[in-house]
Amino acid sequence: MATHKSAEKRSRQNENRRVRNTSVKSSVRTIIKSVVTAVEERDKAGSVTALAAAVPAIKKAASKGVFHKKTTARKISRLTKMVNALNKG
Q1: CB atoms closer than 10 angstroms to residue 72
Q2: Residue 44 phi/psi, 5° resolution?
Q3: What is the model's pLDDT at position 64?
Q4: Crossing angle of the two packed helices 5-40 and 69-88, in degrees rounded to 10
Q5: What's this model's pTM, rounded to 2 decimal places?
Q6: Are 83 and 39 spatial neighbours (Cβ–Cβ below 8 Å)?
Q7: Measured between alpha carbons, how far is 86 from 83 in angstroms, rounded to an integer?
Q8: Where are the chain's structural domains?
Q9: How far apart are CA 10 and CA 34, in angstroms?
C-alpha cells in the first residue's frame, strides 16, 4: 500500500482511470459486436449504419488514451474491410 501522500493520490487516480477505461473498452466491444453481427447476418444497410457508429466511438476511445493509435487503426480497418466485402459481394 502507498505510504507517501503523493503515492496515495496516484493510487486513487489510477483506480479511477482503470474503472473509466474498463467502461469505455466494454462499450467499444459492444459496438464492434453489433457491426460483426450485422455482417454475419448479411444485413448490408445495418452493417453500414453500425460501422458509422463504431468508427467515432473507437476514435474517441483512442483520443482518451484507452487504445493505442495503431490499435484503433487496426480495429477500424478490419471492420471497414468486413463491411466492404459484404457490400461488394
Answers
A1: 19
A2: -65, -50
A3: 94
A4: 10
A5: 0.87
A6: yes
A7: 5
A8: 29-88
A9: 36
Q: What is the CA radius of gyration of the chain?
A: 17
Question: With contact defined as beta carbons under 8 Å apart, do 29 and 57 qualify?
Answer: no
In terms of DSSP H, where are the helices of the chain? 5-40, 44-63, 69-88
* Interval 8-64: pLDDT, tens: 999 999 999 999 999 999 999 999 999 999 999 999 999 999 999 999 999 999 999
Assess contact for 58 and 72: CB atoms under 8 A: yes
Q: Which of 55, 61, 51 is nearest to 22 (CA)?
A: 61
Query: Letter for the amino acid at 89?
Result: G
HSE-up (13 A, CA, CB side) for residue 8: 3
C-alpha cell at 58: 473507437
Query: At which residue does the C-alpha cell 483520443 appear?
Result: 63
DSSP helix/strand/coil, 5: helix
CB atoms within 10 A of CB 20: 12
